[in-house]
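TA notes, week 10

Several of you asked for a full example with nothing omitted. So below is the full record: structure tokens for the whole chain, then the designed sequence directly under it. When grading your own attempts, check the secondary structure regions first.
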């Protein structure tokens, strides 16, 4: 029986459309596996953030690596559930082709490798256009939100909820890329395991930050604090 790993995209922004929640994505992936007599090994929640809904490169790379090691394929509900950025989607197709890991699109019942470059480019372009349309609708809805609903919102409560959500997503991402294990490994490998040197080690290992950038002492310190870790504990021994 063919093994598959499902990918459910988690947006750091509130998902405004019905039928696109994580739970909906998981149900559709489970149905796809059942209909095609495939064994669903795991559901990986890959985060996307920012205006362009860019996928977290580190998480996606780890997921493709895991699929390759376990000889599994990947499945998503729709192409635009991965990203609504044209360049990101084209890079994903390239990553699939280079790694040899097949990616199934449940809604199309097709593999990405079976979709021609022209057709895939058109799909990616339409996904990007839809992203802009959604952003415009959200802006308009925010402008029209007046009266008791807006007045009843407690700024402190909203700020706390926002903080808690960021921490939750940061912890999920850190777990998916095994950040704590990598930091400990760096500490054990370095003669001077300070923040700056550990950041350089992480860069050398090809691990990017949650936003897809390079590590430095400052953002590593912020990430460790956000996750509630103790640098002293991490560097013990």
């Amino acid at each position: 029986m063919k093994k598959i790993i499902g990918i459910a995209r988690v947006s750091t922004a509130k998902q405004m459309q019905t039928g696109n929640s994580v739970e909906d994505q998981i149900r559709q992936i489970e149905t796809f596996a059942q209909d095609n007599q495939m064994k669903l090994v795991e559901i990986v929640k890959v985060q996307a953030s920012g205006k362009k809904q860019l996928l977290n490169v580190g998480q996606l790379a780890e997921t493709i690596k895991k699929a390759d090691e376990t000889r599994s394929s990947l499945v998503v509900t729709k192409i635009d559930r991965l990203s609504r950025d044209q360049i990101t989607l084209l890079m994903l197709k390239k990553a699939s082709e280079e790694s040899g890991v097949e990616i199934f699109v449940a809604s199309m019942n097709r593999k990405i490798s079976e979709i021609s470059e022209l057709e895939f480019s058109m799909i990616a372009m339409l996904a990007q256009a839809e992203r802009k349309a959604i952003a415009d609708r959200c802006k308009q809805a925010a402008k029209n939100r007046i009266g008791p609903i807006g007045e009843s919102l407690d700024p402190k409560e909203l700020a706390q909820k926002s903080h808690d959500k960021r921490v939750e997503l940061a912890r999920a991402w850190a777990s998916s890329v095994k950040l704590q294990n990598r930091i400990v490994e760096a500490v054990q490998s370095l003669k001077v395991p300070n923040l700056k040197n550990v950041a350089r080690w992480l860069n050398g290992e090809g691990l990017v930050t949650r936003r897809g950038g390079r590590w430095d002492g400052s953002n590593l310190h912020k990430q460790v604090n956000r996750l509630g870790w103790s640098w002293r504990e991490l560097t013990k021994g």
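Confidence is low (pLDDT under 50) at residues 14-19, 146-152. Use that as a sanity check on your answer.
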